[in-house]
Amino acid sequence: MINKYSFLLGFLMMSLNLVNGQAAIMAFIFGDKVASENFHLSMEIGGNFTHYSSLENFDRTRLGINFGISGNIKLSERFYISPGIFFLGNRNIKFNNLSLKSPSPSLNENFNNVATELNMNYYDVPILFSYLNKKGNFKYSLGPQFSFLKSSEMVYLGEQGEFTENFDYNTKSSDFGFIADIAFIFKNYNGNKDMHIHARYYFGTQDIFSSNFSSAKNKASCFSVILSFPFIKKD
Protein backbone atom coordinates (compact mmCIF):
# COMPACT_ATOMS: atom_id res chain seq x y z
CA MET A 1 0.00 0.00 0.00
CA ILE A 2 1.28 3.46 -0.87
CA ASN A 3 1.76 5.36 2.35
CA LYS A 4 0.55 8.92 2.94
CA TYR A 5 3.71 10.90 2.42
CA SER A 6 4.79 8.89 -0.61
CA PHE A 7 1.47 9.75 -2.29
CA LEU A 8 1.93 13.43 -1.41
CA LEU A 9 5.45 13.51 -2.80
CA GLY A 10 4.35 11.81 -5.99
CA PHE A 11 1.63 14.40 -6.51
CA LEU A 12 4.06 17.26 -5.88
CA MET A 13 6.55 15.88 -8.41
CA MET A 14 3.90 15.82 -11.12
CA SER A 15 2.40 19.20 -10.33
CA LEU A 16 5.73 21.05 -10.20
CA ASN A 17 6.52 19.98 -13.81
CA LEU A 18 10.22 19.61 -13.09
CA VAL A 19 12.77 19.80 -15.88
CA ASN A 20 14.96 16.70 -15.82
CA GLY A 21 12.76 15.36 -13.05
CA GLN A 22 13.00 11.79 -14.33
CA ALA A 23 15.72 11.11 -11.77
CA ALA A 24 13.43 12.21 -8.96
CA ILE A 25 10.63 10.00 -10.22
CA MET A 26 13.00 7.04 -10.45
CA ALA A 27 14.10 7.67 -6.86
CA PHE A 28 10.46 7.81 -5.77
CA ILE A 29 9.68 4.48 -7.44
CA PHE A 30 12.86 2.54 -6.68
CA GLY A 31 14.17 4.30 -3.55
CA ASP A 32 13.29 1.49 -1.16
CA LYS A 33 14.65 -1.16 -3.52
CA VAL A 34 18.17 0.32 -3.75
CA ALA A 35 18.45 1.17 -0.03
CA SER A 36 21.05 -0.64 2.06
CA GLU A 37 22.78 -0.17 5.39
CA ASN A 38 25.52 1.90 3.75
CA PHE A 39 23.55 3.83 1.12
CA HIS A 40 20.04 5.19 0.62
CA LEU A 41 18.24 8.02 -1.16
CA SER A 42 16.09 10.78 0.31
CA MET A 43 13.40 12.95 -1.21
CA GLU A 44 13.64 16.58 -0.07
CA ILE A 45 11.18 19.46 -0.29
CA GLY A 46 11.10 22.81 1.47
CA GLY A 47 11.01 26.57 1.31
CA ASN A 48 13.67 29.26 1.46
CA PHE A 49 14.12 33.01 1.81
CA THR A 50 16.95 34.73 -0.07
CA HIS A 51 18.88 37.93 0.58
CA TYR A 52 21.39 39.73 -1.66
CA SER A 53 24.07 41.77 -0.01
CA SER A 54 24.12 45.08 -1.92
CA LEU A 55 20.93 45.58 -3.94
CA GLU A 56 19.28 49.00 -4.17
CA ASN A 57 15.50 49.50 -3.94
CA PHE A 58 15.29 46.10 -2.27
CA ASP A 59 11.92 45.55 -0.60
CA ARG A 60 11.70 42.00 0.77
CA THR A 61 12.34 38.39 0.05
CA ARG A 62 9.65 36.09 -1.29
CA LEU A 63 9.17 32.44 -0.47
CA GLY A 64 10.97 30.08 -2.85
CA ILE A 65 10.50 26.33 -3.22
CA ASN A 66 13.26 23.71 -3.05
CA PHE A 67 12.75 20.19 -4.35
CA GLY A 68 15.27 17.42 -5.02
CA ILE A 69 16.90 14.18 -4.01
CA SER A 70 20.01 13.32 -2.05
CA GLY A 71 22.18 10.28 -1.57
CA ASN A 72 23.27 9.27 1.91
CA ILE A 73 26.53 7.35 2.17
CA LYS A 74 27.49 5.92 5.55
CA LEU A 75 31.20 6.36 6.27
CA SER A 76 31.08 5.12 9.86
CA GLU A 77 28.63 4.79 12.73
CA ARG A 78 28.41 8.60 13.12
CA PHE A 79 29.70 10.14 9.90
CA TYR A 80 27.97 10.45 6.52
CA ILE A 81 28.44 12.16 3.17
CA SER A 82 25.33 13.34 1.32
CA PRO A 83 25.63 14.55 -2.28
CA GLY A 84 22.36 15.83 -3.71
CA ILE A 85 20.65 17.73 -6.49
CA PHE A 86 17.73 20.13 -6.22
CA PHE A 87 15.88 20.33 -9.53
CA LEU A 88 13.92 23.29 -8.17
CA GLY A 89 15.89 25.93 -6.26
CA ASN A 90 13.99 29.24 -6.15
CA ARG A 91 15.55 32.53 -5.09
CA ASN A 92 12.83 35.18 -5.25
CA ILE A 93 12.88 38.81 -4.13
CA LYS A 94 10.84 41.98 -4.60
CA PHE A 95 11.93 45.56 -5.35
CA ASN A 96 10.15 48.75 -4.33
CA ASN A 97 10.57 50.23 -7.79
CA LEU A 98 12.47 49.54 -10.99
CA SER A 99 12.06 50.70 -14.57
CA LEU A 100 11.87 48.55 -17.67
CA LYS A 101 14.57 49.33 -20.23
CA SER A 102 13.38 47.79 -23.50
CA PRO A 103 13.65 48.94 -27.16
CA SER A 104 10.02 50.14 -26.93
CA PRO A 105 9.61 53.68 -25.42
CA SER A 106 5.84 53.22 -24.97
CA LEU A 107 6.34 49.95 -23.10
CA ASN A 108 9.00 51.52 -20.90
CA GLU A 109 6.62 54.35 -20.04
CA ASN A 110 4.00 51.89 -18.79
CA PHE A 111 6.52 50.19 -16.50
CA ASN A 112 8.51 53.11 -15.14
CA ASN A 113 9.33 53.05 -11.39
CA VAL A 114 6.99 50.18 -10.58
CA ALA A 115 7.11 47.38 -8.03
CA THR A 116 9.06 44.46 -9.46
CA GLU A 117 9.61 40.79 -8.65
CA LEU A 118 12.77 38.90 -9.55
CA ASN A 119 12.27 35.13 -9.82
CA MET A 120 15.40 33.03 -10.21
CA ASN A 121 15.57 29.27 -10.33
CA TYR A 122 18.74 27.19 -9.96
CA TYR A 123 19.89 23.61 -10.08
CA ASP A 124 21.55 23.31 -6.66
CA VAL A 125 24.16 20.60 -6.01
CA PRO A 126 25.10 20.42 -2.30
CA ILE A 127 27.73 18.01 -0.97
CA LEU A 128 27.32 17.71 2.79
CA PHE A 129 29.53 16.05 5.37
CA SER A 130 27.46 15.05 8.39
CA TYR A 131 27.82 13.94 11.99
CA LEU A 132 25.02 12.04 13.76
CA ASN A 133 24.86 12.45 17.54
CA LYS A 134 24.88 9.44 19.86
CA LYS A 135 21.12 9.48 20.43
CA GLY A 136 20.60 9.49 16.68
CA ASN A 137 18.12 12.37 16.74
CA PHE A 138 20.29 15.26 15.48
CA LYS A 139 22.52 15.49 12.42
CA TYR A 140 24.98 18.34 11.91
CA SER A 141 26.28 19.06 8.40
CA LEU A 142 28.71 21.33 6.56
CA GLY A 143 29.74 21.44 2.94
CA PRO A 144 29.95 23.28 -0.38
CA GLN A 145 27.14 23.90 -2.86
CA PHE A 146 27.42 24.41 -6.61
CA SER A 147 24.50 26.20 -8.29
CA PHE A 148 23.67 26.53 -11.99
CA LEU A 149 21.14 29.03 -13.27
CA LYS A 150 18.03 27.51 -14.80
CA SER A 151 15.98 30.66 -15.39
CA SER A 152 15.85 34.31 -14.35
CA GLU A 153 12.78 36.49 -14.88
CA MET A 154 11.94 40.05 -13.87
CA VAL A 155 8.21 40.72 -13.50
CA TYR A 156 7.19 44.41 -13.67
CA LEU A 157 3.88 45.13 -11.89
CA GLY A 158 2.36 48.13 -13.66
CA GLU A 159 -1.08 49.68 -13.33
CA GLN A 160 -2.14 48.20 -16.68
CA GLY A 161 -0.91 44.71 -15.87
CA GLU A 162 2.31 42.72 -15.68
CA PHE A 163 5.27 42.45 -18.02
CA THR A 164 7.76 39.57 -17.73
CA GLU A 165 11.31 40.07 -18.98
CA ASN A 166 13.86 37.31 -19.49
CA PHE A 167 16.59 38.44 -17.09
CA ASP A 168 19.25 35.84 -17.90
CA TYR A 169 21.46 38.45 -19.54
CA ASN A 170 21.88 40.28 -16.21
CA THR A 171 22.33 37.15 -14.07
CA LYS A 172 25.50 35.10 -13.74
CA SER A 173 25.18 31.50 -14.95
CA SER A 174 26.53 29.88 -11.77
CA ASP A 175 27.06 30.40 -8.06
CA PHE A 176 29.18 28.76 -5.37
CA GLY A 177 28.98 28.85 -1.62
CA PHE A 178 28.85 26.88 1.63
CA ILE A 179 26.06 25.31 3.69
CA ALA A 180 25.59 24.87 7.43
CA ASP A 181 22.74 22.50 8.30
CA ILE A 182 21.17 21.05 11.41
CA ALA A 183 18.49 18.35 11.18
CA PHE A 184 16.14 16.93 13.77
CA ILE A 185 15.13 13.33 13.13
CA PHE A 186 11.55 12.26 13.82
CA LYS A 187 11.96 8.54 14.43
CA ASN A 188 9.27 6.17 13.17
CA TYR A 189 7.36 9.09 11.65
CA ASN A 190 5.45 6.69 9.41
CA GLY A 191 5.69 3.13 10.62
CA ASN A 192 9.29 2.04 10.24
CA LYS A 193 10.48 5.20 8.40
CA ASP A 194 11.93 8.46 9.73
CA MET A 195 11.50 12.09 8.68
CA HIS A 196 14.24 14.73 8.95
CA ILE A 197 13.52 18.45 9.43
CA HIS A 198 16.46 20.62 8.31
CA ALA A 199 17.25 24.22 9.17
CA ARG A 200 19.80 25.21 6.52
CA TYR A 201 21.82 28.34 5.83
CA TYR A 202 23.61 28.97 2.52
CA PHE A 203 26.30 31.63 2.16
CA GLY A 204 27.25 32.44 -1.43
CA THR A 205 30.71 33.65 -2.34
CA GLN A 206 30.13 34.84 -5.92
CA ASP A 207 28.70 37.99 -7.49
CA ILE A 208 25.23 37.07 -8.80
CA PHE A 209 24.46 39.96 -11.15
CA SER A 210 26.21 41.65 -14.06
CA SER A 211 27.62 45.17 -13.61
CA ASN A 212 24.90 46.47 -15.98
CA PHE A 213 22.30 45.76 -13.30
CA SER A 214 24.30 46.42 -10.13
CA SER A 215 27.77 47.91 -9.85
CA ALA A 216 28.15 46.55 -6.31
CA LYS A 217 29.05 42.95 -5.59
CA ASN A 218 25.96 40.96 -4.62
CA LYS A 219 26.38 37.67 -2.79
CA ALA A 220 23.36 35.46 -2.14
CA SER A 221 22.46 34.08 1.26
CA CYS A 222 19.51 31.74 1.83
CA PHE A 223 17.75 30.36 4.89
CA SER A 224 15.79 27.17 4.21
CA VAL A 225 13.55 24.75 6.06
CA ILE A 226 13.55 21.35 4.34
CA LEU A 227 11.64 18.13 4.98
CA SER A 228 13.64 15.04 4.08
CA PHE A 229 12.05 11.60 3.61
CA PRO A 230 14.67 8.83 3.55
CA PHE A 231 13.86 5.82 1.38
CA ILE A 232 14.98 3.21 3.89
CA LYS A 233 13.03 0.94 6.18
CA LYS A 234 14.33 0.19 9.65
CA ASP A 235 14.29 -3.26 11.12
List its salient traits.
Porin, 3 helices, 8-stranded antiparallel barrel, 10 strands, 235 residues
Residue-averaged pLDDT, rounded?
Answer: 84
Computed CA radius of gyration, to the nearest angstrom: 20 Å
Question: Describe the biggest sheet?
Answer: 8 strands, antiparallel, barrel
Give me the side-by-side strand order of the main sheet. Answer: 1-3-4-5-6-8-9-10
How widely separated are the two ends? 18 Å
Low-confidence stretches: 4-20
Structural domain tally: 1
Q: CATH class, please?
A: Mainly Beta
SSE order, one letter for each helix or strand: HHEEEEHEEEEEE
Percent of residues in beta strands? over 45%
* Number of separate helices: 3
Describe the structure.
The chain has 235 residues and is mainly beta. The chain has a single domain (4-230), classed as Porin (Beta Barrel), CATH 2.40.160.20. 14% of the residues lie in helices and 58% in strands. The longest helix is centred in the N-terminal third of the chain and has 13 residues, at 4-16. It is elongated. It starts with a helix and ends in a 5-residue tail after the last strand. The model is unreliable at 4-20 (pLDDT under 50).
